[in-house]
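Translate structure to sequence.
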């Protein structure tokens, strides 16, 4: 049998597809019947346990005090949700309040703590105000003894971030020396946002900005937002939410110097048609996957086609999604929307995807799910970096 370069690539994709042994989605908190919505569930794989942060959502982008839950059995069961101290809504008077939102916890191995990054958002009479500006990175720490620090602002001044610099909902990457590459969304005096990566040092308590990477822009509506970062095949990969019914990505050797913006496409040449929604990487040491939502016949009436959530192999040699590997990662449940989820490698054989869905009622209601990806072989990248 003659093995051409194209067939060799196809065989490689097939072998990588075999990495996934099974995908199982389980309900962990029911909210549709009880008319509540616990949203933004995100997990860090700490020493000996899993730590989840999440928030109650009552209206469009109306978040309440961040809570946390723990699992000691790999995500099968979770403790009662508890409020994180010092993160209560700040009452400013006149009906105005602030809260830290979009929190992403990740274990920082060098210091042994969980570093949590979010952004501050603002409300008046329970309505989001200044939705695209005056948002800044807030960070806090869950120490090894179980205590929490108060939130701090990450100080960084740049002309492209005069109105906003956010790291909410983004996958970041921790370097071997303990420095952290943080994907950021920025805004200045124009309607479209830009994205980049910010190199920071972290000593277990204080996060300090060191260097901003190449700034990527797409002047369509609100521009580029909510980038997520991983490293695979000797390169860094940034996947980016946008407003042109596409998802985009960029590639870098060092995580700071980014190449040109590229559009996510399948290997048959068709684009990934998605609508202003996050994508996230799922990284195994032997294969890179992308998780996303997209337009399909089953979801034409769903807002921004935000259900179901899919997964497909990303071929880093050709920078394309392999169409034949696409499968549903988190299935549809009624007309409930997806869109804000997180990925964590929790062991050598398992990766968790945590997701809260939404039915847009008053108040919002939705269920909270954990999807377990079981790998056929050990993952060298045991925890999400």
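Result:
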């Amino acid at each position: 049998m003659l093995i051409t370069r194209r067939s060799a690539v196809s065989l490689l994709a097939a072998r990588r597809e075999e990495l996934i042994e099974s995908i199982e989605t389980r309900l962990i908190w029911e909210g549709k019947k009880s008319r509540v919505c616990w949203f933004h569930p995100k997990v860090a794989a700490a020493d000996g346990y899993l730590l989840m942060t999440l928030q109650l959502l009552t209206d469009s982008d109306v978040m309440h005090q961040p809570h946390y839950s723990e699992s000691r059995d790999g995500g099968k069961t979770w403790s009662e949700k508890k409020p994180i101290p010092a993160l209560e809504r700040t009452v400013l008077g006149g009906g105005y309040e602030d809260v830290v939102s979009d929190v992403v916890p990740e274990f920082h191995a060098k210091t042994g703590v969980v570093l949590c990054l979010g952004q501050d958002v603002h409300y008046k009479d329970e309505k989001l105000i200044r939705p695209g500006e005056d948002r800044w990175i807030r960070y806090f720490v869950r120490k090894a003894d179980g205590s929490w620090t108060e939130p701090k602002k990450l100080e960084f001044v740049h002309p492209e971030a005069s109105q906003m610099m956010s790291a909410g909902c983004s996958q970041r990457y921790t370097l071997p020396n303990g420095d952290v590459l943080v994907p950021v969304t920025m805004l200045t005096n124009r309607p479209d946002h830009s994205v980049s990566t910010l190199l920071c040092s972290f000593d277990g308590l204080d996060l300090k900005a060191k260097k901003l990477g190449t700034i990527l822009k797409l002047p369509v509506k609100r521009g580029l937002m909510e980038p997520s970062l991983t490293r695979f095949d000797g390169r860094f990969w940034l996947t980016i939410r946008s407003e042109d019914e596409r998802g985009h990505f960029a590639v870098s050797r060092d995580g700071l110097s980014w190449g040109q913006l590229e559009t996510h496409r399948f290997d048959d040449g068709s684009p990934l048609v998605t609508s202003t929604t996050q994508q996230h990487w799922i990284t195994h040491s032997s294969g890179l996957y992308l998780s996303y939502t997209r337009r399909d016949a089953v979801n034409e009436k769903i807002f921004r086609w935000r259900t179901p959530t899919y997964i497909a192999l990303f071929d880093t040699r050709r920078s394309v999604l392999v169409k034949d590997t696409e499968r549903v990662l988190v299935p549809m449940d009624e007309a409930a929307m997806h869109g804000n989820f997180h990925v964590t490698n929790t062991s050598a054989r398992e990766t968790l995807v945590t997701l809260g869905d939404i039915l847009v009622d008053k108040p919002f209601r939705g269920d909270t799910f954990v999807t377990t990806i079981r790998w056929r072989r050990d993952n060298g990248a045991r925890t999400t970096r």
